[in-house]
Amino acid sequence: MILKDFxxxxxILNTFIAEIRDVNKQKDSMRFRRNxxxxxxxxxxxxxxxxxxxxQNITTPLGIKDTEIIAEDIxxxxxxxxxxxxxxxFLNYFDNAENAFISAYRKHTSETEFEIVVEYLAAPSIEGKxxxxxxxxxxxxxxxxxxxxxxxxxxxxxxxxxAAVIGAQEGIDTISKKLPEDTTLWIAAVDEVLNEKGYxxxxxxxxxxxxxxxxx
Length: 216
Prior knowledge:
Elements lengths: L1 E4 L7 H9 L7 H20 L4 E8 L2 E8 L3 E7 L3 H10 L4 E11 L5 E9 L7 E5 L2 E2 L3 H10 L7 E10 H10 L5 E8 L1 E2 L5 E2 L5 H6 L4
Parallel strand pairs: 1-10, 4-5, 4-7, 7-9, 8-9, 9-10
Antiparallel strand pairs: 2-3, 5-6, 11-12
Helix pairs in contact: 1-2, 2-3
């Protein structure tokens, strides 16, 4: 797997990450969602630099300009519900992309053990297309793998890109062993460890709850 870790670079992404981690600024759910969205926009821009292009003649009021535009057929897939703000950020830039939505959640069998349950999928075919999987938190990597296996029922993608806001090294190692070697992971920050419950430390908490409110 190809890793693009932007925490090793100095950019505005670090400011957005600092704000979504801050326990005081997290109280503003609208700002939290917007920061996740902005992170998605930056990651989408960086990702776009790696996509093949095609030449297109653009007619202006004064003439014609030959321009290189992205030539990929993109399917954006977000994991509900936490992935929605990140999905929006990508869609702001890849506005012609097709969209897919899938649910994947942890069903705990004990205090520290869980299985991933996938219950909902709305998606187009991904056959021969560029699949972009977006999920703000890459913890154990099990949700991402479960989603990937489910999506394969809809075809074999040409390329796979994963976008995450914060991940743990353990989760990165897990998906790198299971996903195709040419998969690219675009991530804004990588944290050190998972705790005994499989949550990222220091992380930021539950991204879905912070964005949309607590759930039962």
